Amino acid sequence: MDEKILLALQDLGLRKSEARVYVALVARGASSASDIARDAKIPHPRVYDIMESLAAKGLVKIQTGRRPRYTATEPEVGFERLLNRFREKGEFLTNHLSKIYDTRMETPSIWMLKGRNNIIDEISQISCQAENELLLAIPVDVLGVLRKSLRAARRKGVTTSLVIYSGEKESQIDSEVARHADIRVREPPGSVVALADYNDCLLCSHKTLVRESSVDEEHAIVAGDPELLQILSYFFYHSLWCAAKPIVKEVSIEEYPRSFVHIWKAIEDAEILREKGYKVKASIKGKTVKDHTAIELEGLITQTTNINGRIFSITVKKSDGSEITVGGRGASVEEVEAANITLGPAKKT
Question: Which ranges constitute the DSSP H helices of the chain?
């Protein structure tokens, strides 16, 4: 018997003995219990209970009588029934367990994720959850799997900064990906990072996602702690983004407005526009540093500050002529701590 088929059947909820009996029955056609016991190498007395179980799953039909005979339901029909049962149970569990999930007292802020495919799925999910800005650092090998997520993020207006560990495969970074993200290429590879706004992040080693890694290395840290996310943002900037080679692309005014939660990226974008001769409009949501009152303001950026990659700030001139200083998360010397910065070009100077 093909082990792959037996394992696939077990993945669908069949016990190993049930999988063996079902495959034997598919191969034989209508059969007696003794025939199936011989082919499936199952003790004869056990066949009857197994057949009852398979019949309840919709995979077997039983011809009753003094010597019962059994036949397999046509696989296309039988598995459609089985999958429908899974869907019904899934909907039931989703409906009832979601109510419990939503009433939890607290959620762990840091946890461990294992398995290469699970980690790639989590990176994709984090990418889809981003509302304003996405930071990604990934090997080029998984770029194809994440292309759909990057496209969806771009359609939502998410600004994506993507560091790719290319090795000798830089040719795989195609023009489609470049339309969805600001890309830099880094060699040698560093850590794998996925950071959506200041809500969710994933961190693992590069070896975790390359195909030659061992199972023991396939693990990642997933976190939602705001302070850890802030540290990870600056790690991404200093250790990955600044150490990578930019892939130059023409600035398109159609891409604006663009939103940022990381002030260093907002400053970088503003400087690109200013170098092109544009004045830069900024819309900022955040809170005052002095008394933590919610604030929203608009104006033109008159100055950007980046002191050794440690201190970042923006000076905004409002319509009444007054100027206000804006810092990023954890700002202490500026007047406003920005949670979201939206930029767009004004008329050229």
Answer: 3-11, 16-28, 33-40, 44-56, 75-102, 116-129, 143-155, 175-180, 226-235, 263-275
The pLDDT score that the predictor gives to residue 62 is 87
Model confidence at 66, pLDDT cuts 50, 70, 90, reads confident
Residue 194: predicted pLDDT: 95
Angle (nearest 5°) at CA 135 between 134 and 136: 115
Distance from C-alpha of 85 to C-alpha of 91, rounded to nearest angstrom: 10
How many other CB atoms are there within 10 angstroms of residue 60's CB atom? Answer: 23
What pLDDT, on the 0 to 100 scale, is given for residue 305? 92
Q: What is the DSSP letter of 169?
A: -
The Cα 133–Cα 47 span in angstroms is 58
pLDDT digits (tens, 9 = 90+) for 143-170: 888 888 888 888 888 999 999 998 665 5
What is the chain's Cα-based Rg? 28
Q: Which residue has the tokens 């008159």?
A: 302
In what order do the strands lie in the sheet containing 60-63?
A: 31-32, 69-72, 60-63
User: Is residue 154 within 8 Å of residue 136, measured between CB atoms?
Assistant: no
